[in-house]
Amino acid sequence: MLFALLFLPLTHHALRIAVFMRKGYIQVYTGNCKGKTTAALGLALRAAGAGLRVFIAQFIKKRRCSEHKALERFDDLITVKQYGTGFLKGKRPKAAVDSARKGLEEVREVIQSGEYDVVILDEVNVATHNNLFSVEELLGLLDEKPVPVELVLTGRHADARVIRKADLVTEMLEIKHYAKKGVKARQGIEW
Length: 191
Description:
Elements: H1 2-5, H2 12-19, E1 26-31, H3 36-49, E2 54-59, H4 66-71, E3 78-83, H5 94-113, E4 118-122, H6 124-129, H7 135-144, E5 150-154, H8 160-165, E6 168-172
Parallel strand pairs: 1-5, 1-6, 2-3, 2-4, 4-5
């Protein structure tokens, strides 16, 4: 098969086959400052630019933001699904638990499908921190990850076991933030 690839034109399918011959890693973007989802979306954009297929599962969130409008331009390569009821603010409503659990099961199927090269679990660390599903269930999902799939987990409060399991961990650390001067979240920048 590899020999045959040398003589094929570099079509999308041939590129995906070549990419699947590589190892995918587990990345975690965590910390108490902004930029975790933004970093993951940047990676999604880069992956799509290389012809890779990306699945983004957004836990907690239910609001349609500017990034959704932009990502629609790449709907042949990037799929976004939301599994949330909105920010929890210390609560754990049954609807939020049900939505997150449904998302976890769908993500398990997506990861195993072979249809996606990169799978992003946005705010999954917040989902486990708020007991929408357990860290053990998330770790089980990580254990089931096929070798070529790149998996990205975002959100504050990444569990120490998830951090140990990851191949790359980035912590967003606040040095200075304009919100402390009263600047409100702005469309196109924060949402």
